[in-house]
Amino acid sequence: MPSLRDAIADDLRAQIAAGHLEAGARLPSEPRLAAQYKVSTPTLRNALSLLQAEGLIEKIHGKGNFVRHPLRRLTYTGGLLTPDTDLYVTIRTTNLRARGDLIPLLKVPSRTPLTEFLYLTHQRESPHSLARIYVPQDLVPAKLPWRRPGWAETQETVTARVPTPEEASTLRISSTLAVLAITRVSCDTTGRVVEAARLVLPGDRANALFISHHTTEERGTEE
Amino acid sequence: MPSLRDAIADDLRAQIAAGHLEAGARLPSEPRLAAQYKVSTPTLRNALSLLQAEGLIEKIHGKGNFVRHPLRRLTYTGGLLTPDTDLYVTIRTTNLRARGDLIPLLKVPSRTPLTEFLYLTHQRESPHSLARIYVPQDLVPAKLPWRRPGWAETQETVTARVPTPEEASTLRISSTLAVLAITRVSCDTTGRVVEAARLVLPGDRANALFISHHTTEERGTEE
DNA sequence: GAGTGGTCTAGACCACGAG
DNA sequence: TCGTGGTCTAGACCACTCA
Questions:
Q1: Residue among A58, A25, A218 nearest A127 (CA)
Q2: How far is the CA of B204 from the C1' of D2 (A)?
Q3: pLDDT digit string, tens, across residues A140-173
């Protein structure tokens, strides 16, 4: 016996899949939908939150619930998102001093002057991904983007988690939707960290792709 | 102004981190906790569901809410999990024929004979990660593990999502806990796929690490 | 100001686990 | 049988958006 919220979610999913509710369309208001399905508003909201966690709808406070555009998955590869056509980017630059997690991440002393670039990408007006990039202030390039000569090695640590409340609200995703969190650290040939980045990609809209080529020496090794 | 559920979740998180609530311990019952925090039971349950999605607690119907054992994060690097000390592995081998998703993944014709290796790793009696590895039957190595000479390139596609119901039950995790899903495809020098793998790593217990070295030509490129 | 979603309450009833 | 979590109700009040 499926619960009411699952039954309602199934019904709405089917309506979206069948095209009865088009991408971008606004759903009836929550009290209206609750009356239609003969349930209380919390139960209906529970059903909607399932759809939100799947990335099917977007809730906008004060405006309504909207059917999301079918997800075009973007692929993150080597620091770039593809395709980057109709992807809008907002950048905010802040100067700050190293503290907390940033100190071991960038391997710098406390209070080292840093520049933070906050990237917020949008796809068709809806937020898509979030990146915070930290660069020691004496290395800040004169013009963006960043990838510069002199880089020798990049380490990317990938984890899956739920977004923090701030991430959820800026990306307008449910706090239960899985995100791909990537911490990227790039060093130059001397081992100095030239850039550290924290990326947050909603799991339903992005993949990350890593390609490695095996050299002959590596190929011969056994376990 | 943080919401009540976030404030309660923060408090419980802090208590778990501080060791006031030990691993394996049962939390007070939900009505009791609700009274303690002076909130209604739905609000308290809302807070608990946040902790559940983070993998901090496990809800067992009819028994209670339990603090999960502290996560020892394992790191996945280039096809291996480290550290592999006290990590137990169960392997099940099955012969089957290519169908569905496996056909494009391995770039083989339909019904090509394949061998599937199902890996289930355990850490301290509790399931840790799940891997399904597919190899064309004529390439199955005489002895395990797999990494063989002749491999030229490996592509790894990483995504974050919630587990399927089967994955949630075999890994004994909540269906709201994010997992890292990695699809790994390895080719030989002729471009033939010699192995494809689907890995599922619970987000609270595993990272994936990718290291790339930049060659001199790459280092010169702009944008 | 009117309409929307966001949060919260104070209950009720059901389903599961263990003695 | 008892205590647990799971679901649901019928409201209340607040915060946000837009005219």
A1: A58
A2: 35
A3: 665 555 556 667 788 999 999 988 878 888 888 8
Q: Which stretch of A12-26, A147-161, B42-56 has the lowest confidence by average pLDDT?
A: A147-161
**Domain A74-209 is found in CATH 3.40.50.1820:** no
- Distance set, CA A157 to CA A163, A208, B51 (Å): 16, 11, 23
- pLDDT tens digits along B59-86: 999 999 999 987 677 888 866 666 656 6
- Report the C-alpha gap between B71 and A58 in whole angstroms: 33
Number of residues in chain A:
223
Structural domain boundaries in chain B = 4-67, 74-209
Chain B residues within 8 A of A179 when measuring between CB atoms: 160, 178
Positions on chain C within 7 A of a protein C-beta: 3-12, 15-18
User: Within an 8 Å CB–CB cutoff, is residue B200 touching chain A?
Assistant: no
Q: Which residues pair with B59 in a beta bridge?
A: B65
Which CATH number is A4-67 given? 1.10.10.10
